[in-house]
């Protein structure tokens, strides 16, 4: 108890200072701390006497959080609205602790803001748990978008990316190209070598196609069975054909023996190719079907070739 402090005030102070929450009070007119609990030193290392003005509070905030939190708290306080803010607070050791500030705005009878009172809570553990959970969710999402056999994107991922890139092409007027691949005589390959070797063959084809799909926005996916698709945002017909030829070359360089192929002793792929300049009335599904028909033509015209839309 401080000298001349009423017993009731001493009781309230003891209660406040015995909690893990850190109480504080700021005088609105002078923007100075009227009080901050001694628990602040245990948490951050800064002595209560070092918290003089709101500038001390702002300066001890992570630079990436500072403008957002300070501007939000000022605007809410000026409007007389109670609020909460999460941010990282600097310790004397140079580390950061996640804080949740719960703020109550105190007004006089005329409605003028006279002070701010509140509590700081250490939410570091909660934030770490949230971060770990977010990472886990992202990993699970990535797994849900991966083909379990080949490791490339699956049909679900392709469908999502395709619709997004179609809409982006409609917005920007850029071309969008699509390649569809079918492993030639794959049933004969499975019959000749067995399904275990057939699975390994698909993995090798996927790796070969990945060598040609090197741009960040290119999306290679296993479309189903022995079919793959490669989406090429921003690529015109000439560029798409060059990529298709490179894909066929990479598959050839993989040197996958296919003794049962009528085309020779080496595995090959057939390619359907299309390029679109999507307008607002154009249908993404119809374009996909058009490229699929090109692949059908390639297969029925002798395979190991590229067939493109007119």
Quick structural gist:
With 310 residues, the protein is of the alpha+beta class. Helix content is 45%, strand content 24%.
Q: Can you offer a commentary on this structure?
A:
The chain is α+β, with helices and mostly antiparallel strands and about 300 residues long. It folds into two domains: about 5-130, PAS domain (Beta-Lactamase, 2-Layer Sandwich); about 145-310, Reverse transcriptase/Diguanylate cyclase domain (Alpha-Beta Plaits, 2-Layer Sandwich), CATH 3.30.70.270. The chain has helices spanning about 5-15, 40-45, 55-60, 65-80, 125-145, 155-170, 185-195, 195-210, 235-255, 285-300; strands spanning about 20-25, 30-35, 85-90, 95-105, 115-120, 175-185, 220-225, 225-235, 270-275, 305-310. The strands form two sheets. The protein has a five-stranded antiparallel beta sheet with strand order 2-1-5-4-3, sandwiched between helices. Helix 7 (about 185-195) crosses helix 8 and helix 8 packs across helix 9. The protein is elongated. The protein starts with 6 loop residues before the first helix and ends with a strand. The model has no long low-confidence stretch (mean pLDDT about 90). GO terms for molecular function: diguanylate cyclase activity. It is an enzyme of class 2 (transferase).
SSE blueprint and pairings:
Elements: H1 7-17, E1 22-27, E2 32-36, H2 39-44, H3 54-59, H4 63-78, E3 83-90, E4 96-107, E5 113-122, H5 124-144, H6 155-172, E6 176-183, H7 186-193, H8 195-212, E7 219-224, E8 227-233, H9 237-254, E9 269-276, H10 284-300, E10 306-308
Parallel strand pairs: 9-10
Antiparallel strand pairs: 1-2, 1-5, 3-4, 4-5, 6-8, 6-9, 7-8
Helix pairs in contact: 7-8, 8-9
């Amino acid at each position: 108890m401080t000298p001349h402090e009423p017993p009731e005030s001493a009781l309230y102070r003891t209660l406040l200072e015995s909690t893990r929450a850190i109480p504080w009070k700021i005088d609105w007119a002078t923007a100075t701390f009227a009080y901050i609990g001694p628990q602040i030193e245990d948490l951050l290392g800064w002595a209560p006497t070092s918290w003089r003005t709101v500038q001390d509070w702002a300066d001890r905030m992570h630079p990436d959080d500072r403008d957002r939190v300070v501007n939000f708290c000022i605007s809410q306080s000026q409007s007389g609205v109670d609020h909460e803010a999460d941010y990282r607070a600097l310790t004397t050791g140079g580390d950061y602790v996640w804080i949740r500030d719960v703020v109550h705005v105190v007004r006089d009878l005329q409605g003028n803001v006279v002070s701010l009172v509140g509590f700081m809570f250490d939410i570091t553990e909660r934030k770490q748990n949230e971060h770990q959970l977010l990472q886990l969710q992202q990993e699970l999402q990535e797994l849900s978008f991966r083909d379990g056999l080949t490791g490339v994107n699956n049909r679900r991922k392709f469908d999502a990316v395709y619709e997004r890139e179609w809409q982006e092409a409609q917005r920007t007027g850029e071309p969008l190209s699509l390649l569809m691949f079918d492993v030639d005589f794959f049933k004969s390959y499975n019959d000749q070598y067995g399904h275990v070797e057939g699975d390994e063959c698909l993995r090798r084809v996927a790796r070969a196609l990945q060598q040609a799909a090197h741009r960040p926005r290119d999306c290679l996916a296993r479309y189903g069975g022995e079919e793959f698709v490669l989406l090429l945002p921003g690529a015109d017909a000439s560029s798409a054909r060059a990529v298709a030829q490179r894909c066929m070359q990479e598959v050839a360089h993989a040197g996958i023996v296919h003794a049962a192929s009528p085309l020779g002793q080496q595995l090959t792929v057939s390619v359907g190719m299309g390029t679109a300049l999507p307008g607002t009335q154009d249908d993404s599904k119809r374009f996909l079907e058009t490229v699929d028909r090109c692949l059908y033509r390639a297969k029925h015209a002798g395979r190991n070739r590229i067939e493109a839309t007119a």
